[in-house]
Each structure stands twice: as structure tokens, then as C-alpha cells.
């Protein structure tokens, strides 16, 4: 995870991957929003695969987050990635956002299911990179690394 933007707008309270045991692992993050309500959000989702460094792989899509949450099926690629976090997050409603943003215990088994059963990907190392923009300013970059073998 890396952070850009202004700390007077938002900040990460935590962002971690927890390994409880060999089979139970999860990802959690909390972003504190300091200037609420937030009603103009754009999200860029990029999938990269490692080939002598991480290279673009299949998807690089930018969409209006508020419009998407009103009609989630309007963007099939965004909808696919949204399904990774939807049930683990409080970001499951339309704008405005007047509360902190949370992804709580996103299970690695769920990520594996999305990448292998819902839309199968070839084996390899991937980076799922998201840029979160509010009011035209990039406020945060979140990178999640996964490996399939």
C-alpha cells in the first residue's frame, strides 16, 4: 500500500494482511475521511502481471464511483472487481460518503475464488492496483499482490 494526496483529506488508519493460520488469511483496511461528505469519486483499477517486472494485463479501467454504485452492472469490469470487496466493505451504497471506508477481513479464499472460478486467470503473480480520486485529485493508491500456482 502506498499513500498519495493530502493528509487533510484522508489517511489510512490501518492496512494489513493477517495470517491466522495456513488456510485462514485476510486483508483489512480502514481509511479515515476528514472532509465529508464525499460526493465526487473516480476509481482506476489496473491489473498487472509479473513478466520481468509488473506489466499491464487485461484491465485498466477508470469509472465514476458514484455513478457506478447507483448502477453497478453498467461497467462489467468494475463490477467484477467490486465483487471482490462488496460483502467485506461498507462501500456498498451510492454517494455521498459521510463515514470512514472499511474493508474488513477480505478472505484470501474469496480472492482465489474470484480469480480461479468466476473468471479464471492463468497461474502467475499479479498486482491489483487501485487509484482513488476525489474531486479530481488522486487521494490514495492501494496495491494488492496475489500469486496463483
Q: Provide the helix percentage.
A: 10-25%
Distance between the termini: 23 Å
In what range is the share of β-strand residues?
over 45%
What is the number of E strands?
Answer: 7
Structure explained in plain terms:
- The protein is of the alpha+beta class and 149 residues long.
- It has three helices and seven strands.
- Strand 6 and strand 7 form a beta hairpin.
- The longest helix is centred in the last third of the chain and has 11 residues.
Question: Mind sketching the topology for me?
Answer:
Layout lengths: L9 E10 L5 E9 L7 E10 L3 E11 H6 L5 H10 L15 E7 H11 L5 E11 L2 E12 L1
Antiparallel strand pairs: 1-2, 2-5, 3-4, 3-6, 6-7
Key features?
DUF1091, 4-stranded antiparallel sheet, globular, 149 residues, alpha+beta, 3-stranded antiparallel sheet
Could you give a quick summary of the protein structure above?
With 149 residues, the chain is of the alpha+beta class. Helix content is 18%, strand content 47%.
Amino acid at each position: 500500500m502506498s499513500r498519495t494526496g493530502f493528509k487533510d483529506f484522508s489517511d489510512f488508519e490501518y492496512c494489513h494482511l493477517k495470517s491466522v493460520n495456513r488456510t485462514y488469511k485476510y486483508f483489512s483496511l480502514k481509511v479515515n475521511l476528514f472532509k465529508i461528505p464525499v460526493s465526487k469519486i473516480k476509481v482506476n483499477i489496473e491489473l498487472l502481471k509479473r513478466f520481468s517486472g509488473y506489466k499491464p494485463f487485461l484491465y485498466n479501467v477508470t469509472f465514476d464511483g458514484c455513478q457506478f454504485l447507483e448502477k453497478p452492472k453498467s461497467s462489467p469490469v468494475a463490477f467484477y472487481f467490486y465483487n471482490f470487496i462488496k460483502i467485506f466493505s461498507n462501500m456498498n451504497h451510492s454517494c455521498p460518503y459521510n463515514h470512514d471506508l472499511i474493508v474488513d477481513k477480505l478472505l484470501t479464499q474469496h480472492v482465489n475464488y474470484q480469480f480461479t472460478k468466476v473468471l479464471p486467470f492463468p497461474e502467475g503473480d499479479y498486482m491489483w492496483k487501485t487509484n482513488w480520486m476525489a474531486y479530481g485529485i488522486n487521494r490514495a493508491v492501494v496495491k494488492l499482490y496475489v500469486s496463483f500456482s
